[in-house]
Amino acid sequence: MDDGSSLREAAEIIQKSNFLIALTGAGISVESGIPDFRSAGGLWEKYDPAIYAHIDSFRRDPEMIWEMLFEMISLTKNVKPNPAHVALAALEKKNILKGVVTQNIDNLHQEAGSVNVIEFHGNAHHLECLSCQHEEEVGDPDFGGKPPRCPRCKEILKPKVVFFGEMIPQAALMESTMLAHSADAVLVVGTSAVVYPASGIPYIAKQNHARVIEMNLEHTGLTGSITDVFIQGKVGETLPKLLKLIES
Ligand code: APR
């Protein structure tokens, strides 16, 4: 648990910053009730991502992948933003935080009031057809228990989220890279930072001499290298504390 000195140091960096950005991962939504991927009990403990989260597997056997997707979607049903999402939205409202690059597909940053949210891995609320490019919003979140089909060509639809083996949406990549190049401070919140190119965002900012503040339950590959301040703890608790110090 943080002894308070890292929080104070982080607050000082942010108060002096002119262009703070945030990179968030599944850890920020755990206190909303959505398990993350790689901690004990996470989704990838049950489903091997190399199989279940790869685009080639979806093309080969979409029904099998929808088994995992139904479970992932059920985990994100009836969840609400937690104080960590709310704290980031408050920092944006104060024009301190300029944007959030999120790896999450749960829409909780937007529901907490964040406006400039770049969804690096897409959003589970949209569906796309890989064969005729039809797109639609998710209607019934249960899909009637069956994989949704394209109204035009009857193929099984895919959530508009980035699978391994797929490109990051061009606009998201461009916008987040521009944010990283402009940043003089980066909040890295609740991510294991093992998936590239999202994990490259703090490195780009660091190349421009940005200060990196990491908030996580445990150290990651960033902690021993580019992180300037590490704040250990549950972000649902540490982020509101950080916001209070910044406001004081
Ligand atoms: N407070 C702070 N950190 C937390 C909390 C919490 N309450 N709960 C979990 N964490 C941390 C974990 O310690 C871990 O470092 O959040 C991180 C979650 O890491 P992952 O489960 O790997 O999630 P993420 O980093 O978002 O994964 C990146 O991998 O599978 C792909 O597309 C998927 O977007 C995802 C990407």
**If helices are DSSP runs of H or I spanning 4 or more residues, what is the number of helices?**
10
Task: Give the distance, in angstroms, between the N- and C-terminal Cα atoms.
Answer: 22 Å
Low-confidence stretches are none
Largest β-sheet summary? 6 strands, parallel
Helical residue percent band: 25-40%
* Shape field: elongated
As laid out across the biggest beta sheet, the strand order is 3-2-1-7-8-9
Report the count of strand segments: 9
Q: From the alpha-carbon coordinates, what is the Rg to the nearest angstrom?
A: 18 Å
Tell me the strand percentage band: 15-25%
User: H/E series, N to C?
Assistant: HEHHHHHEHEEEEHEHEEH
The small molecules bound here are: adenosine-5-diphosphoribose
What is the subunit organization of this protein? Answer: single chain
- Class derived from helix and strand content: alpha/beta
Characterization of the model:
With 248 residues, this protein is an alpha/beta fold. It has 10 helices and 9 strands. It has helices at residues 5-16, 43-46, 49-52, 55-60, 62-75, 83-93, 108-112, 170-182, 201-207, 235-247, and strands spanning 20-24, 97-102, 117-119, 122-128, 135-137, 158-161, 185-189, 211-216, 229-232. The strands form 2 sheets. It has a 6-stranded parallel β-sheet with strand order 3-2-1-7-8-9, sandwiched between helices. The chain is elongated. The model has no long low-confidence stretch (mean pLDDT 95). The structure holds adenosine-5-diphosphoribose. Residues 25-27, 30-31, 36-39, 42, 49, 53, 103, 121, 190-192, 194-195, 216-218, 220, 234-236 line the site of adenosine-5-diphosphoribose.
